[in-house]
Design a protein that fits this description.
The complex is a heterodimer of chains A (about 475) and B (about 325). Chain A is α/β, with parallel strands linked by helices and about 475 residues long. Chain A is built from 15 helices and 18 strands. Chain A folds into 2 domains: about 260 residues, Aldehyde Dehydrogenase, Chain A, domain 1; about 180 residues, Aldehyde Dehydrogenase, Chain A, domain 2. Classes of the chains: A alpha/beta (about 475), B alpha/beta (about 325). Chain B: Pathway: Carbohydrate degradation; 2-deoxy-D-ribose 1-phosphate degradation; D-glyceraldehyde 3-phosphate and acetaldehyde from 2-deoxy-alpha-D-ribose 1-phosphate: step 2/2.
Chain lengths: ~475, ~325
């Protein structure tokens, strides 16, 4: 009997229309930047998708001026109910154009269409719907009777969930009455630029949302701009620290959502098959390009072998390849630079004596790829247990008692996420209480919802996004 | 069919003692073992099943899967109104599923009540299509053990190749696992060469923990197949329940080296659904189970939808259902 081969099932590219080059979206219009241009590529094929303008300080200044004007003349004078109408409109447009966004996101980012279709885009729309509802109820959010927006907010987002991170930033900012200058990541600007088109389609007043593409210097120009009232950043802890230093001593507000080295703790009474699924979702979802990834598996020593064996068997069924194929589970690494970093840290793991295992699946010739990889025999002192790899690489550590699990989980400069797997409710509550992590999942992992606040402890940042707590980050004096 | 019933039941008990590492097989020993199996998280299990359901099976792989699914069907009629004529019709359908395309594979078996076994046997002749008989006072199983055994023997004597028995759900739900075990072992003992499918009626067991425990208990007692449902209770064969059973047979083989079959039955009516189950078999139990010796669909109307899809793949156009010769029952079990 032959094996069950799944024939290619590619989602059609025809639904997207990528221009050869894109300008900056400032004051409701497309303008050329004053800087150079750079190329955004499809990481699965290294095909150039479009030329992108690199906004310089003068472009950022134009965008901030547009945002300031829109804030003082239009957006701050508008009722919450009217702001909400725009947000509802944007949310509906995101749903209507969901397929287009999903395909474009997969092309530009390398993540599987299964995830953009079922996670990224629906959640992005959900964030706009959720915050649209808050726009006229801010006085009832428990943040004072008449909470006030900052004004102009500068936002810098990462490449791992391009449109979703945009929605986490823009939806609450607009709902609370701020206007926005946003810079998408240099490797994934396309869905932000398509979002600009949605803003036009929704008749959003010019200047309320400005999209300035670029790299590090564009981001620095936003952070340094004197007329920006608040900075919201999601990205690496290194850049987060630079931002914190840059704005120290200024009047700017700030929220930072940074790196992580999430512990996924498996007790010996865990529901084992679902735990294996949760481990996979924790670290191989989005190629492990997830700040809250469960990249450290802490498993009780008595079941470590069993869990590892089951995990390896499960990994053999993960399908790595064309992100547009509907059956792909793990897509391409977002960039050459990221692939190099993952490769280098994995080599360090081997050199330090951890046992490396990957699923041996074939990889495409072109593009940036890394096999789902598990390191067992990892100890706390290994670099792969301490540093954020931001790739499909899992470090397996063991523990003997709940106390040891908690101590090891907390023994990191990060504190973004953690997972607990056990059949005992009381143990979930005890463990969650001990963990220094902003998000703790019990018997699940990597679940997101706009109603639930998300953010970190320690070097994973400060401030929360989502829920009532997320609103506070965009309202003066309530953060 | 020569083994003495009593001896085989003793064998099952001896094997279970050995497996559990106990000197006497008691209900307490079985309870400790079954309750020590890892729990099932309902949300996670259902999410995994839904994830498997999103696989997109196209072109050649779809063609392959449809033929495989057809070959795995236990074409079933289990109605009070069954007649010899109806059973003959079903058998004819099994022998020639699609008269317009004789390359169409045949279903694995025809599944009938015990008193229809002889008619089914006769109609199927010496073909490779097996006859499966439901027994042990299907579907409720509420009768004394001697009656259940007689029901089974009767079907075996009439020539049944396979016996689909029901477990005593009352005993299971009241925690009397030893009674469930003994009944399965005794039925197995009178099956002779017939393969035994153990129907757990998962819709009455309700929780996934119960499904996992009943699966292991049925395998321990000597079932050759574990089967979800009678088709008379809703919900019948859901994908999450089948997932739990596939995990059970996979893990059982890891421990014992013995490969047990799985049969979801009831409620699987479309090709799309059948393909989802095959994806689950492939990715959870593994390709060793992609064979009608180890995986079956208990269904009736499923066959015609598979034939419709098969014709569509062959000709490029959908035909009306009226072009599918239909001798199978209109109600789906």
């Amino acid at each position: 009997m032959p094996t069950f081969e799944y024939a290619p099932a590619p989602e059609s590219r025809a639904v997207v229309d990528i221009a050869s080059s894109y300008g900056l979206f400032i004051n409701g219009e497309w303008v050329d930047g004053h800087g150079t241009t750079f190329k955004t590529v499809n990481p699965a094929s290294e095909e150039v998708l479009a030329d992108i303008h690199e906004g310089d300080a003068s472009d950022v200044d134009l965008a901030v001026k547009a945002a300031r004007t829109a804030y003082s003349r239009v957006w701050s004078r508008m009722s919450g109910a009217d702001r909400g109408k725009y947000l509802f409109r944007i949310a509906r447009l995101l749903q209507e154009r969901a397929r287009e966004f999903a395909v474009l996101e997969s092309l530009d980012n390398g993540k599987p269409i299964k995830e953009t279709r079922d996670v990224d885009i629906p959640l992005a729309a959900a964030h706009f719907f959720y915050h649209a509802g808050w726009a006229d109820k801010l006085g009832h959010a428990g943040l004072g009777p008449d909470p006030q927006p900052y004004g102009v907010v500068g936002q810098v987002i990462p490449w791992n969930f391009p449109l979703l991170m945009l929605s986490w930033k823009i939806a609450p900012a607009l709902a609370t009455g701020n206007t926005v200058v946003l810079k998408p990541a240099e490797t994934t600007p396309l869905t932000a630029l398509l979002f600009a088109e949605v803003c036009q389609q929704a008749d959003l007043p010019p200047g309320v949302v400005n999209i300035v593409t670029g790299a590090r210097e564009t981001g620095q120009a936003i952070v340094d701009h004197p007329d920006i009232d608040k900075i919201a950043f999601t990205g690496s802890t290194g850049v987060g620290k630079m931002i914190a230093r840059s704005i120290a001593g200024t009047r700017k507000g700030v929220t930072l959502e940074l790196g992580g080295k999430g512990a996924n703790i498996v007790f010996d009474d865990a529901p084992i098959d679902q735990t294996v699924e949760g481990i996979v979702r924790g670290i191989f979802f989005n190629q492990g390009h997830v700040c809250c990834a469960g990249s450290r598996l802490l498993v009780q020593e008595s079941i470590a072998e069993e869990v590892t064996r089951r995990l390896q068997r499960r990994l053999a069924t993960l399908r790595v390849g064309d992100p547009l194929d509907k059956n792909t589970d793990v897509g391409a690494i977002n960039s050459r630079a990221q692939l190099d970093k993952i490769t280098q840290l994995s080599e360090a793991g081997e050199a330090e004596g951890a046992q490396r295992w990957d699923n041996g699946c074939p990889l495409p010739d072109k593009g940036f790829w890394f096999r789902p990889t598990v390191f067992s025999g990892v100890t706390q002192t290994h670099r792969i247990a301490q540093e954020e790899i931001f790739g499909p690489v899992l470090s397996v550590l063991t523990f003997r008692t709940p106390q040891e699990a908690v101590a090891k989980a907390n023994n990191t400069p990060y504190g973004l996420s953690a997972g607990i797997w056990t059949d005992k409710g009381s143990r979930i509550l005890w463990t969650a209480d001990q963990l220094k992590a902003g998000v703790v999942w019990a018997n699940t992992f990597n679940q997101f919802d706009p109603t639930s606040p998300f953010g970190g402890y320690k070097e994973s940042g400060y401030g929360r996004e989502g829920g009532r707590h997320g609103l506070a980050g965009y309202l003066k004096g309530s953060n | 069919m020569s083994s003495a019933p009593a001896d085989a039941a003793v064998d099952a008990t001896a094997r279970a003692r050995d497996f559990l590492g106990v000197t006497r097989l008691t209900n307490a020993a079985l309870t400790t073992w079954l309750h020590g199996l890892p729990g099932v998280d309902q949300v996670g299990c259902e999410a995994r099943a839904a994830g498997l359901g999103t696989r997109s099976i196209k072109n050649d792989s779809k063609r392959w899967a449809i033929d495989l699914a057809i070959s795995m069907i236990d074409l079933t009629t289990l109605e009070g109104a069954d007649t010899v004529g109806r059973v003959r019709g079903l058998a004819a359908k099994a022998l020639t599923p699609d008269p317009t395309d004789l390359s169409t594979p045949r279903p694995a078996a025809v599944c009938v009540y015990g008193d229809m076994v002889a008619a089914a046997k006769e109609a199927l002749g010496d073909s490779d299509v097996k006859v499966a008989a439901v027994a042990t006072v299907f579907p409720s199983g509420r009768a004394s053990v001697p009656v259940k055994l007689l029901d089974t023997k009767d079907a075996v004597a009439a020539g049944a190749d396979e016996i689909d028995m029901v477990i005593d759900r009352g005993a299971f739900l009241s925690g009397n696992y030893l009674e469930v075990f003994n009944q399965i072992a005794k039925v197995k003992a009178v099956c002779g060469a017939a393969r035994l499918k153990v129907i757990m009626e998962t819709g009455e067991l309700v929780t996934y923990d119960n499904v996992r425990r009943a699966s292991w208990l049925s395998m321990l007692a000597g079932g050759d197949f574990i089967k979800t449902s009678t088709g008379k209770i809703s919900p019948a064969a859901t994908l999450p329940v089948t997932l739990i059973m596939l995990e059970a047979v996979r893990d059982w083989r890891d421990v014992t080296g013995e490969q047990i079959g799985v049969k979801p039955a009831g409620g699987i009516r479309t090709s799309k659904d059948a393909v989802k189950f095959l994806v689950a078999v492939n990715e959870v139990a593994g390709e060793d189970w992609l064979d009608n010796h180890y995986f079956r669909f208990g269904a009736s109307s499923l066959l015609n939808d598979l034939l419709l899809q098969r014709q569509k793949l062959r000709t490029g156009v959908y035909s009306s259902a009226v072009y599918i010769a239909d001798d199978s029952p209109s109600t789906a079990y």
